Automatic annotation (TrEMBL):
Cross-referenced NCBIfam families: PRK05395.1-2, PRK05395.1-3, PRK05395.1-4
Lineage: Bacteria, Pseudomonadati, Pseudomonadota, Gammaproteobacteria, Oceanospirillales
Sorted UniProt keywords: Amino-acid biosynthesis, Aromatic amino acid biosynthesis, Lyase
Function: Catalyzes a trans-dehydration via an enolate intermediate.
Catalytic activities: 3-dehydroquinate = 3-dehydroshikimate + H2O
Top EC category: lyase
SUBUNIT field: Homododecamer.
GO molecular function: 3-dehydroquinate dehydratase activity
Protein name as annotated: 3-dehydroquinate dehydratase
GO biological process: amino acid biosynthetic process; aromatic amino acid family biosynthetic process; chorismate biosynthetic process; quinate catabolic process
Organism of this sequence: Halomonas urumqiensis
Pathway: Metabolic intermediate biosynthesis; chorismate biosynthesis; chorismate from D-erythrose 4-phosphate and phosphoenolpyruvate: step 3/7
Sites annotated Transition state stabilizer: R19
Chain sites annotated for binding substrate: N73, D86, I100, S101
Amino acid sequence: MSKPIYVINGPNLNRLGLREPEIYGYTTLVEVESICRDSAGDSELVFRQSNSECELIEWIHEAIDNSSGMLINPAAFTFTSMAIMDALKMYPFPLIEFHISNVHKREPMYHSSLVSPIATAIMVGTGARGYGYAVRLLRDMIAERA
């Protein structure tokens, strides 16, 4: 049996559907999880969200030992957390950095990701439905490595 795919979400994503819907849409995190599980098919999926940098780092460490691929939406920590970047540098499997909005069309503070240089792939601006695309892409990347 293969190891699970991890989907890790950072701060404020628990407020999806309520927070700035003009940017992030009306899809809730519960709905995002359903999209991810549907897209994972028969692959096991671990889906998590935290507003805590420490907890996110612990989950990244867990994924290093227990996963076959990771999709991460670090949210605001994308641009500020060297600690998350350092943890992700240790990740040896396919890694997709994901953002619901197109961060490159937003204010300049959102243009410089600490995660992008170490990610296998980056997906931005596809809305919440993009999580499904990203999980399917991750499955393909994992299969190509096998």
